[in-house]
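Dear Dr. H.,

I hope your travels went smoothly. While you were away I took the liberty of generating a structure for the chain from your last submission, since the lab meeting agenda had it listed for discussion. I wanted you to have the full record in hand beforehand rather than looking at slides cold. The sequence, exactly as received, is reproduced here:
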Amino acid sequence: MGNINSDYYFLKWGGEMDELIRAKNRIKTSFGYPSDWPQSLQTMIAVMFYNSFGMYIPWGSE
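The corresponding predicted structure, in token form, is as follows:
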């Protein structure tokens, strides 16, 4: 299930990390493209970007 908005709303205003995520070639990764990420992961990434506290998201087997 992909996100209809190809601009990746959940990465907006993410600064340097936003740019790194957008620039990453995901063809060889298990994550795939951000538009294909589950809604819950997209939401948590948005929460991280808008939070002033250090955070990380353990996701997947890698």
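Two observations you may find useful: Residues 39-49 form the longest helix (11 residues). The chain is about 30% helix and 0% strand.

With kind regards,
E. W.
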